[in-house]
Design a protein that fits this description.
alpha+beta, Alpha-Beta Plaits, Pseudouridine synthase, 3 domains, 4-stranded antiparallel sheet, 6 helices, 17 strands
Length: 248
Amino acid sequence: MPEPIRLQKHLADCGLGSRRFCETLITAGRVSVDGKTTTELGTKIDPATQKVVCNGKLITKEAPVTILLNKPPKFICTSDDPQGRPTVLDLLEDLPERVYTVGRLDFMSEGLIMVTNDGDLAHALMHPRYHIEKVYKVWIDQPLGYHQLQKMKRGIANGGETLRVLDINEGTHTRTGVEYTITLGEGKNRHIRRLMEHFEKKVFRLMRIAIGPIRLDELKPGEWRTAKPAELKLLRAAIAERKKDKTR
């Protein structure tokens, strides 16, 4: 007989959003179990025998799907925007499954974003303990100096947080600026943009090109594809390795 699971995990597994977002649905009184509104986060259920409803709709688990999408600038990573701006999910209008974005890229940033209804995978990728590495390309107006690069690796205090990079490599110089490749471990909100603002550098373009072993490769802006089983296997192996590192 299957073990009962937490209600927020079941909602995430059904593609309603991250576990944290699903917790807000529960505490807001928007979820019922067997006809009774439930607001306790510790609630456990048996999905096979109990009826879960959210916002008036019956919630059932769908087959897992994970999408790799090249987010264009001026799209936001949310299911709905009060300002009416286009969202990443607007690019997936024909997808029958309920899905949500794993993490975010800010409004003007572009590149690789993962969209899924796999609650376990999303939870592991967003868990602050595991810090799956992410790689970005950034184009700025002026080159960074040696000491600035070293400070980025050591960490810079900003807004009550420490912003650091795992690696940063200088690339092509053009008439308008310089390209850098940056690897982050734990990414904070507007992490790279805040670092560049700290050193008074203007960001022309910011693109994420990798999440762990998953690469953006040939996807054009706005294009998406289903993640390959081999890619997901590599990603789960990277997550497992990070979990192992944390227990040593």
